[in-house]
Amino acid sequence: MEDVEKKIGFVALIDILGFRELVSRDDDLASVRRYVGTVTSMLATSTGPNALQFVLFSDNLVVNTRDDSPESFELLVVACSNLVYELAGQSVSVRGAVSHGPFIRSPTTGQGVIVAGQPIVEADYYQHQQDWVGIILAPSVVRANPTLKTQSSIQGNAASEDFQAFATRNKLGLHLRHWEQIPFHKTSPLANHEYDGYVIVPLPRLSESRHEVGDSLGVYYAHLARMKECAPDPASQQKYSNTMIWLDGVRASWSLTAYR
């Protein structure tokens, strides 16, 4: 245990939905190989002191930052955004949560990878509470970022300046949105099951124009519609419908931002 480091940072816990069905119809593991390859390509490319760390075990993925700097938080949000988008293109949907706080992590894999602490417990709780497809921020992240609402709001007009300058200035605004109606599982017939929080917006890497962002949101919507068609039961289909309702709002707000 001498090699296990204590950190304070951000942790994303992500569950791959429908993984059992994916494996059961994948005799040569081609789909699983694509899934693993996508996770690796999306998460293993960051370098330097802010490089992300991750552990992948079957249908569970844990991604952590090395500190709790704004730069590391932004890097994690963008990586989760890219990952959700790319996996949807393989008809793989995810549900997860990002949390913040102290945790321990082994620096090498010589004795296995150890990741444990309060953020993992919190992220696991909020991952299971959701009744849709997506990744949200747990309350600990909101507490750690008092200006999060401003940071996640797009400032300016994408049509009025160079898009790369606009995207750099609004990186969190592009990849993170506030939503008051995140669907949660009902705990009782009278309980409110809509959570007021923040959602990571699925986007591909390195969009080159405002038109490409809008097109990408449309592509992701089409992926959701296809996965809904293939879902095994009404409850599973409703998860995709809930996400499509949210995405309709994101697409509408982006259209206003990009073209007004």
N-to-C SSE series?
A: EHHEEHEEHEHHHHEEHH
- Write down the overall mean pLDDT: 88
Radius of gyration: 18 Å
Amino- and carboxy-terminal Cα gap: 57 Å
In quaternary terms, these chains amount to single chain
From the spread of the alpha carbons, the general shape counts as globular
Give a count of the beta strands, DSSP E runs of length 2 or more: 8
Q: Give the fraction of residues assigned to helices.
A: 40-55%
Number of helices: 10
Percentage of residues in DSSP E strands? 15-25%
Question: Could you walk me through the main structural features you see in this protein, from its secondary elements to its overall organization?
Answer:
It is built from 10 helices and 8 strands. By secondary structure, the chain is of the alpha+beta class. It is 46% helix and 22% strand. The termini are far apart. Strands 1, 2, 3, 4, 5 and 6 form a 6-stranded mixed β-sheet that branches. Strands 7-8 form a two-stranded antiparallel sheet. The longest helix has 26 residues. Helix 2 packs antiparallel against helix 3 and helix 9 packs antiparallel against helix 10.
Keywords:
6-stranded mixed sheet; globular; 10 helices; 260 residues; alpha+beta; two-stranded antiparallel ribbon
How would you summarize what this structure contains?
The protein is an alpha+beta fold and 260 residues long.
Reconstruct the topology from this structure:
Elements: E1 5-17, H1 19-24, H2 30-43, E2 53-57, E3 60-64, H3 70-88, E4 93-105, E5 115-117, H4 118-129, E6 134-137, H5 139-144, H6 148-151, H7 163-169, H8 171-175, E7 176-183, E8 194-200, H9 210-230, H10 234-259
Parallel strand pairs: 4-6
Antiparallel strand pairs: 1-3, 1-4, 2-3, 4-5, 7-8
Helix pairs in contact: 2-3, 9-10
